Amino acid sequence: MRFIVTKELGKLARWLRIIGFDVIYYQETDIGKLAITALRDKRTIITRNRNIPHLQKCMVVVTANEVFEQLREVKEKLDLPIQPDTMFTRCTLCNAVLEPIAKADVQKKVPEYVFTEQEHFRRCPVCDKIYWQGSHWGNIREVIGKLK
User: Fold this and answer.
1) What average pLDDT does the segment 83-92 reach?
2) Which residue, 56, 122, 50, 59, is CA-closest to 92?
3) 129 burial level (CB within 10 Å; 0-12, 13-18, 19+)
4) Residue 123 sits in which domain range?
5) Are 133 and 104 a contacting pair, CB within 8 Å?
6) Does residue 19 contact residue 144 with C-beta atoms inside 8 Å?
7) Distance CA 77, CA 128 (A)
8) Do residues 61 and 12 make contact, with C-beta atoms less than 8 angstroms apart?
9) Region 74-93: what's the mean pLDDT?
10) CA separation for the pair 8, 49 (Å, rounded)
11) Does 141 fall in a domain?
């Protein structure tokens, strides 16, 4: 499943990327361009905007205010599959698929304690952000587990 999430749902876009979904975070106001992008790329629009009637077939309107409830709402409305093996595979900033990177190549790019404690790292090929399995991964898995 591929999504285009409108500007008022930025935290939701990030969480969907954490889960492993391909998510464009659409920050513009041009509804026509939003529609063209969604249709061209076969993406489901996720929005809080109820005033886009001509896109109802490819759109999910989120009503919840809190991000966890928004995530639950999207999961239920789309029967969203959450698979552990796809979690943490996308950059939360730019949506690119993460690549493995050798530990030696990140020494100057991560805090010293992280370099000492971690063995496996991933890098975003677009924005060069480095990811590793810190304690936040367990916390995120716990939150996602509550959705099932």
Assistant:
1) 90
2) 122
3) middle
4) 99-132
5) no
6) yes
7) 34
8) no
9) 91
10) 9
11) no
In a domain, 68, yes or no: yes
Integer Rg of the chain from CA: 17
**Helices and strands in the chain, H and E counts:** 5, 7
- Rounded CA-CA distance 93/74 in Å is 20
SS3 of 146, please? Answer: coil
Q: Which pair of structure tokens corresponds to residue 66? A: 């809190």
Position 16 scores a pLDDT of 96
Task: Provide the residue type at 136 as one letter.
Answer: H
**Same domain assignment for residues 38 and 111:** no
Q: pLDDT by residue (tens digit) across 27-36?
A: 998 988 998 9
Confidence grade of residue 137 (pLDDT, cut at 50, 70, 90): confident
Structure tokens at 124: 């975003």
Amino acid at 25: Y
Contact of 41 with 21, CB cutoff 8 Å: no
Structure tokens at 134: 């810190």
